[in-house]
Design goal:
2 domains, 9 strands, two-stranded antiparallel ribbon, Rossmann fold, alpha/beta, 5-stranded parallel β-sheet
Length: 280
């Protein structure tokens, strides 16, 4: 099979390496001439524009920047125009969007734009988010903790994509597009929340005159939520028990009375929990 990577940043290069290891022929397209030059110097195959060549898979790996507090789809829309130009009549192509998308973007942007631009081509689109770490993208893509694919259920997508994951020994989670979009954002938000929590904890440690890193290291060992992956992931009910409600309330009072920073963090935790009502 042949694959085209649209967007040769870290995720694009990592995707190309993954596909090559799975037996795909890989080519790259990028609008940046400097990137194209670097790819050529590295011995990668670079295509300048559409030709009569057909691809079994086109992977969209362009960034979705945040502009004035909202996700910009400008680069994504341009990449989809590129995809449509590469689609060949009579040949099925799987279009896999690896870019991070807000829930509903596949339905509102990706599918309508391809439908508009690729009227004579046979294609199906899916969302294949990347969970790799920025500095270790190549390694993480080839040893993923989770492979998630959001689609409308077109089985031809499995024909193209399943061999990739079989080569990794991975069992993909196939779901709908909106679920896959939210899984990706949910993962990033969890990481961001954890980092912010420990930074807030460090500020509270400083106010108490103790070593914040020592506290953080110990909390990571003591708190079940830090070492038990399934803890707290049964959704739909508030936390209860003898300790969590009263200790949160007491610590919030401590933060307020001492006018300590980041009381709003704890207030937000309490507000979410209170919105679910009483524990039965």
């Amino acid at each position: 099979m042949n694959a085209l990577i649209v967007g040769a940043g870290r995720i694009g290069l990592a995707t190309g390496a993954l596909l090559r290891s799975a037996g795909f022929g890989v080519a790259y397209f990028d609008i940046d001439p400097d990137v194209r030059g670097e790819l050529g110097d590295a011995g990668e195959r670079v295509v300048a524009g559409p030709s009569e060549e057909s691809f079994d898979l086109i992977a969209v790996c362009v960034p979705t920047a945040t502009v004035e507090g909202e996700m910009s789809t400008a680069a994504l829309r341009q990449a989809l125009s590129t995809c449509a130009a590469f689609l060949q009549p009579g040949a099925f192509t799987a279009v896999a969007v690896r870019s991070t998308l807000l829930p509903g973007t596949m339905a509102a942007v990706v599918v309508p734009r391809l439908t508009e631009l690729a009227t004579s081509s046979d294609w199906a689109a899916c969302h294949w988010p990347s969970f790799s770490r920025e500095r270790l993208a190549v390694e993480d893509e080839q040893a993923p903790r989770l492979v998630c694919i959001g689609s409308d259920g077109d089985e031809r997508l499995r024909t193209v994509l399943d061999p990739i994951f079989a080569s990794l020994g991975a069992d993909p989670l196939w779901t709908d597009c909106a679920t896959a979009e939210l899984i990706k954002h949910g993962s990033n938000l969890f990481n961001a929340t954890k980092i912010s929590y420990f930074n807030a904890l460090n500020a509270w440690a400083s106010a108490a005159g103790v070593d914040g890193q020592k506290v953080a290291n110990a909390v990571a060992l003591a708190a079940e939520g830090a070492w038990n992956p399934s803890y707290g992931t049964s959704v739909g009910a508030p936390f209860g028990g003898a300790c969590l409600p009263k200790d949160l309330e007491a610590f919030l009072g401590y933060l307020r009375s001492g006018e300590l920073p980041f009381a709003g963090f704890v207030e937000a935790v309490k507000a979410v929990n209170d919105s679910f009502g009483r524990v039965l």
